[in-house]
Each structure stands twice: as structure tokens, then as C-alpha cells.
Amino acid sequence: MTTQRPKEQNWSVLLGAAFLMATSAIGPGFLTQTSVFTEQLLASFGFVILISIIIDLIVQTNIWRIIAVTGRRTQDTANLVMPGLGSLLAALIVIGGLAFNIGNVGGAGLGLNVMTGLDATTGAILSALFAIGIFLFKEAGQAMDRLAQLLGGVMILLTLYVMFTSHPPYAEAALRTVAPIKFDLFAIITLVGGTVGGYITFAGGHRLLDAGIKGVEALPSVNRGATSAILIASLMRILLFLAALGVVSSGAHLDPDNPPASVFQIAAGDVGYRLFGVVMWAAAITSVVGSAYTSVSFIRSLHPAIERHHTWITVAFIVLSTAVLAAIGKPVAILLAVGALNALILPIALGTMLVAAGRRDLVGDYRHPAWMTWTGWLVVLAMAVLSVRTILTTLPQLFGQS
Q1: Domains and CATH numbers, the chain
Q2: What confidence tens digit (pLDDT) does each residue in 282-319 have?
Q3: What's a GO biological-process term for it (predicted)?
Q4: What is the DSSP string of 20-39?
Q5: What are phi and psi of 275, to 5 degrees?
Q6: Using CA atoms, how far apart are residues 201 and 398, in angstroms rounded to an integer?
Q7: Interatomic CA distance for residues 255 and 236, integer angstroms
């Protein structure tokens, strides 16, 4: 039986889980992808965002609901669906999370460099120490929730300011969101993967589980948390899209080496560039925390020793990411290889959870809504086909590198 929690405490945890997932999605890659695709597709990128939001909601609500109903972390449910499947999924999540965390730590260093002029590597190390400090708090879960809410709010407000200064064509953006001139399937897949792919969609679901929000009676709260998380991440995406659209519609070109920085700088001058540093650091540091927490949550139940020492394993996860970054810089080859693996995680994980939702020994008398099941399987099929395509195009690039 699920322990009842005070409503205000419930809401605090739900909001924290929503922001944890959203800010895990809003990392350096999120900022770059949004800026680049806006320059390529102009106002029609609004249609891509709309379609990706619909897919994100299908994925997120399915996975969070099934986590809550089973009362187990995803890897434990997967191992019950098929022995060894959960361990495979955990390995994919941890490998992907570790590799992408290298980029997140690097993004935090870049953010501090823009804000203060501090060397990027030094900034990365200081940012990693800050993230480690979060997990050393006695109430690490609450500290993580507060950090995600605070920095998530800061990112949204600063990007909102830059959007207004860039004077985007709002009417054109609204029209092309429902009647696009250009269409890019790869952009949709990239956005979906960057929002609910890899470890990201599980960040909030596992956080709710750790906070004791589970069971059929908790589903209304879980639905609100899952939807809120997608809407928060999507709000940030839309604001950045409009800011970038205002810049490129004026005839300006984004710097290919740092597209989101040029959006902020062109729209708001030197002040905008400094604001970009704040947004980049906030996006990166919350992604560092979300990646470390969620990746380790996938291996906590594999052995009692991991469960007992999960805090220190999380610290080691961040230290290792930072050490690799400091030693060899951004490992492009590793990121490409894991990007290909990461494309497989979503269909495997979502498919496994949908199978679990139909198993009475795992969900009891709960009946998963038919529309969620069928839309979920459609996403699994589409993402599986496209993930294979991603691997076939990525691996030649990887092995072609020196």
C-alpha cells in the first residue's frame, strides 16, 4: 500500500521531478540543435517542435505511469520481462549517460568561461565540484529538486528576454507551425531523442519512485508530473526557437562553432553573450546532475553494495566524466558511437515497459489505456527503424575518423 503524503509535499516532489527531467533534457546539445535547426528550417521548425512534443508526451506518460504502477525501477521491470534485459538496458543507459556527461561537464566549463573569462577546463572542474556537493547533502533529493527548479526558471526567463529583443515574426511562426513549407524527419528524431531519449525520460520517473509516489492511486499525480516535465522542456525549446528565428529572419548568420551563443549575442549584444554563459552553465550543470543521478539509479538494484554506496558511485561518475574531459577534451568519436547506441535505448525501453503493462504478474489489476498502448507501439516501431538508420549513417563516420 502506498503511503499518503501531504498534498503540498506531493506537489513539491512532482515539480522537482518535472524540472529534473526537463533540465536533464535542456543541455548543451539541446541549445545547439534548436539554434541550428531554426536556421535551416526557419519558421517551419515550429511544426517539427509540435510533432516532437506530441511524441514526447506519448513516451513520457507511458513510461512514468508504468514505473509508478509496477513500483519498480525500469531495469528491475525489464529483468522480469526477460532475464538479462534490464542489465542490458542499464549498461546502455550508463555508457550513454557517462559519455554525454563528458559533454555536459564541458558545457558547464564553457558557460563559466563566457560568464567570467575563467579557463574552460578550470570552469568544468569547479562545476563538477558544485554538482558533487549537491549529492553530498543529507537531503540530496530535495537539493536536486531545488536546483532544477531554480536554474530551470533562470534559463526560461533569460531566454524569454532574448526572444523579445530579437523581435521574431510571431505570425509567421504560428502559421508555419501548422502549415510548414519545409520538413525534416531527422530534426524530429533528433528532438525526440534529445528530450526523452537515453536516460532523460527516466530521470523524473525514478525520482518519483524514490520519493514514494507510486501505485495506481498516484497515477493522476504522475500524469501531471510527466506532462509538466515535457511542457517545461518544450517551453524552453519554443522560446529559443523564436529567439533564433528573430535573429536569422533579420538576415544574420549564426556562428557554426557556437550557434546558440551567436543567437544571444546578435539579439542582445555583449549583455546577451554574458546571459548565454548563464544559460549554458545552468543547462549543463542541471544535465550533469540529472545524468549522474539517473544513470546510477539504473544500477542501484543490481547489487546490494551499489545500493549502499550509491552516493559515492554517483560522485565517482561525475569525477570520471570530468577527468576524461580534462585529459582529452571533447571525445567526438566516443560521442558519435554512444549517439548510435543511444538511439536504440528509447524503443527498447518503451517497448519493454509496454510489454510489462500487459503482464498481470507485474501490474496486478491495472489496465493500461488502449490508446496509450497503441500510440506507444507506433513510437517504438518508428524509433526502432530510424535508430537503425542512425547507426548505419553514424558508424561509417566514426570509423572514417582518424
Answers
A1: 7-328 (1.20.1740.10)
A2: 988 888 888 888 888 888 877 788 888 888 998 999 99
A3: iron ion transmembrane transport
A4: HHHHHHSSHHHHHHHHHHHH
A5: -65, -35
A6: 27
A7: 21
